[in-house]
Amino acid sequence: MSLANVSKTIYNAIFRRTSTFVLTCVVLAYPFERAFNTLTEQYFRQINKGKLYDDIKKKPEPEEEE
Amino acid sequence: MAAFVGRATKQALLRTKPALFNQQATIVTFSSKTGKRLAWVLGSIAIGGGTVVATALAQPTFASDLVLHPPKYPWNHNGLLSALDHGSIRRGYQVYKQVCAACHSMKFMCYRNLVNVIMSEEEAKAEAEEALVEDGPNEAGEMFERPGKLSDHFPNPYKNEEQARAANNGAYPPDLTYIVLARHGGEDYIFSLLTGYADAPAGIKLMEGQHYNPYFPGGSIGMAMALYNEIIEYDDGTPATQSQLAKDVVTFLKWAGEPEHDTRKLYGLRAVIIFSFLLAVSYYMKRHKWSVLKSRKLAFKPPTYKK
């Protein structure tokens, strides 16, 4: 299937009618938000490694002196 | 004005050129018009400069300006995406509990706020039970004391402001919950204040019970230096130097004032990603919708009249 065909199929199946377009938005919103939130939080935890509560749980560790 | 100055100087430069080989011609061409322009330029500069000086002189000087401003410290939660150091918050809570809480209340903080931020639920429960909280009235109509619960606020060292003042030479130890937000300079100010005690310089007289701190507006502060090296011992074995104690307690107070700090930064990241996508989409849509209007051509065909 060529690229033009794919976009044509998608257009006909989703974008062509408002009903299918809105339905797609509503259905995709849930998995999108799950994935998006997970990814951003993972990134946030990665750049703040060692500073968050999960890092000091159980074993409070000495870190960074000023 | 800049254009006028440019034009005037350009003309003056052009006019001086002939002076190289004909002095007399220059004198002649330096007409009254050029002189007028020069006067205008000099006049505007004088008026502009005068206005600036007058405005600067008219600014009032406040006594609070004459205070030592704290330096900017590189807090490791500075930055758009940097979370608070929760290990530091935990140590800071220990400092607050063992040092500051003797005089300062934190009446808007509850033990439940500590859960999953610096300690587990069991730890926080044990922490709350150490405090005696007044509750009641019971069936006999009397108030009684009981061990604290997670939902209790931090205990007050004094019953009311009057008692606090009476115990502290008339100075009221402020509530510390939102103190970082409530002071100019925020964390830098609190840190400098805690570590900045000094002997009063010559000429400054302190009343009894007052101490000298250059960072405090006015210089004389009712609070004595509270943090010394090794004044407490940290759970996690961090060396308890004065600056470490101050840094930790300030981080704790920062968290107390803005408990949403980390979440806010995470949501900020999400908002920036989503909104930049939406911005790109709206830009594309605008170009798309306007392309018809922008690329159309209007032709005027004069009507032909029959004669």
Automatic annotation (TrEMBL), chain A:
<keyword id="KW-0496">Mitochondrion</keyword>
<keyword id="KW-0472">Membrane</keyword>
<keyword id="KW-0249">Electron transport</keyword>
<keyword id="KW-0813">Transport</keyword>
<comment type="similarity">
    <text>Belongs to the UQCR10/QCR9 family.</text>
</comment>
<comment type="function">
    <text>Component of the ubiquinol-cytochrome c oxidoreductase, a multisubunit transmembrane complex that is part of the mitochondrial electron transport chain which drives oxidative phosphorylation. The complex plays an important role in the uptake of multiple carbon sources present in different host niches.</text>
</comment>
<dbReference type="GO" id="GO:0045275">
    <property type="term" value="C:respiratory chain complex III"/>
</dbReference>
<dbReference type="GO" id="GO:0005743">
    <property type="term" value="C:mitochondrial inner membrane"/>
</dbReference>
<dbReference type="InterPro" id="IPR008027">
    <property type="entry name" value="QCR9"/>
</dbReference>
<protein>
    <recommendedName>
        <fullName>Complex III subunit 9</fullName>
    </recommendedName>
</protein>
<keyword id="KW-0999">Mitochondrion inner membrane</keyword>
<dbReference type="GO" id="GO:0006122">
    <property type="term" value="P:mitochondrial electron transport, ubiquinol to cytochrome c"/>
</dbReference>
<keyword id="KW-0679">Respiratory chain</keyword>
<dbReference type="InterPro" id="IPR036656">
    <property type="entry name" value="QCR9_sf"/>
</dbReference>
<dbReference type="Pfam" id="PF05365">
    <property type="entry name" value="UCR_UQCRX_QCR9"/>
</dbReference>
<comment type="subunit">
    <text>Component of the ubiquinol-cytochrome c oxidoreductase (cytochrome b-c1 complex, complex III, CIII), a multisubunit enzyme composed of 3 respiratory subunits cytochrome b, cytochrome c1 and Rieske protein, 2 core protein subunits, and additional low-molecular weight protein subunits.</text>
</comment>
<keyword id="KW-1133">Transmembrane helix</keyword>
<keyword id="KW-0812">Transmembrane</keyword>
From TrEMBL, chain B:
<feature type="binding site" description="covalent">
    <location>
        <position position="100"/>
    </location>
    <ligand>
        <name>heme c</name>
    </ligand>
</feature>
<feature type="transmembrane region" description="Helical">
    <location>
        <begin position="267"/>
        <end position="285"/>
    </location>
</feature>
<dbReference type="InterPro" id="IPR021157">
    <property type="entry name" value="Cyt_c1_TM_anchor_C"/>
</dbReference>
<feature type="binding site" description="covalent">
    <location>
        <position position="103"/>
    </location>
    <ligand>
        <name>heme c</name>
    </ligand>
</feature>
<keyword id="KW-0813">Transport</keyword>
<dbReference type="GO" id="GO:0006122">
    <property type="term" value="P:mitochondrial electron transport, ubiquinol to cytochrome c"/>
</dbReference>
<feature type="binding site" description="covalent">
    <location>
        <position position="104"/>
    </location>
    <ligand>
        <name>heme c</name>
    </ligand>
</feature>
<feature type="domain" description="Cytochrome c">
    <location>
        <begin position="87"/>
        <end position="239"/>
    </location>
</feature>
<keyword id="KW-0496">Mitochondrion</keyword>
<comment type="similarity">
    <text>Belongs to the cytochrome c family.</text>
</comment>
<dbReference type="InterPro" id="IPR002326">
    <property type="entry name" value="Cyt_c1"/>
</dbReference>
<keyword id="KW-0679">Respiratory chain</keyword>
<dbReference type="InterPro" id="IPR009056">
    <property type="entry name" value="Cyt_c-like_dom"/>
</dbReference>
<dbReference type="GO" id="GO:0020037">
    <property type="term" value="F:heme binding"/>
</dbReference>
<dbReference type="Pfam" id="PF02167">
    <property type="entry name" value="Cytochrom_C1"/>
</dbReference>
<dbReference type="InterPro" id="IPR036909">
    <property type="entry name" value="Cyt_c-like_dom_sf"/>
</dbReference>
<keyword id="KW-0249">Electron transport</keyword>
<feature type="transmembrane region" description="Helical">
    <location>
        <begin position="38"/>
        <end position="58"/>
    </location>
</feature>
<keyword id="KW-0408">Iron</keyword>
<keyword id="KW-0812">Transmembrane</keyword>
<keyword id="KW-0479">Metal-binding</keyword>
<dbReference type="GO" id="GO:0046872">
    <property type="term" value="F:metal ion binding"/>
</dbReference>
